[in-house]
User: What shape does this take?
Amino acid sequence: MEKVALVTGSTSNMGKAIAEHLARQGFLVIVTSRHGEEAKAVAAALPHEGASFETDFADAQSIEWLFAFVREKFGRLDVLVNNVAYTKNESILECDLGTWEQTINTNLRSYFLCTKFAAEIMKMNGGGSVVNITVSAQSGSKDKFSYMVAKGGVNYLTQCAALDLAPFNIRVNAVGSGLVGTAVGYRDFSNRPYENPMLPAGHIGEPEDVAEAVAFLASERAKYIYGAMLAVDGGLNLVV
Ligand SMILES: NC(=O)c1ccc[n+]([C@@H]2O[C@H](COP(=O)([O-])OP(=O)(O)OC[C@H]3O[C@@H](n4cnc5c(N)ncnc54)[C@H](OP(=O)(O)O)[C@@H]3O)[C@@H](O)[C@H]2O)c1
Assistant: This one.
């Protein structure tokens, strides 16, 4: 039976690279975004047969429909990659309740709900793997209030879920990204030059760098890795 992988928010930058990488490894990848036609186009261009589902990850009902689709159409799920993110890049003083709810629901609550619903399916198939995309930074950032609070939550979510799900042969890990590809919410490089002397690597990362780490953690090659965060950041967390 073909293995099935679901990548949340997979029509651009890292999510798209992760979907393509897993498809190249033979997974049937389910591509998701709020824009169904875009998700369909990305899925159609995958190097291995894919599927798509229009999902708003800020909306709990929409996530339930996505997992009903996975259960009914495929009856299994081997890999979940929680990648979706939204940011308004606001300070705590600029963060109103609407911004807080949009960010926390998209970037943290969806990681909880998707992991829980995925685990219910994976349990029935004897196990699986969840990879959460977080930041490599180990401390807070200025003017990224709700986004960084959510990422802090994702880090503990990874560890707690790893403990709770280990008895079911479900491994939960994270990839901590640095500056990779385009900035979150952007589709171009206009505010992010490739060369960056502040980074030990000297330049920002490629989405494929993150995809490679995700594919490793999701695979059997990482079978003894539980609740870890693998930094893929060109050394950023060593200098900030
Ligand atoms: N880019 C970086 O340098 C960087 C650095 C550190 C960590 N990260 C992390 O890496 C991950 C990927 O970031 P990225 O830069 O690749 O992000 P991105 O290019 O902004 O892509 C986000 C994806 O999520 C989708 N999306 C956003 N809100 C959604 C919602 N409510 N429901 C469904 N889909 C939604 C977007 O598609 P639609 O808008 O069409 O729905 C898009 O496919 C995130 O977890 C981010 O926090 C990124």
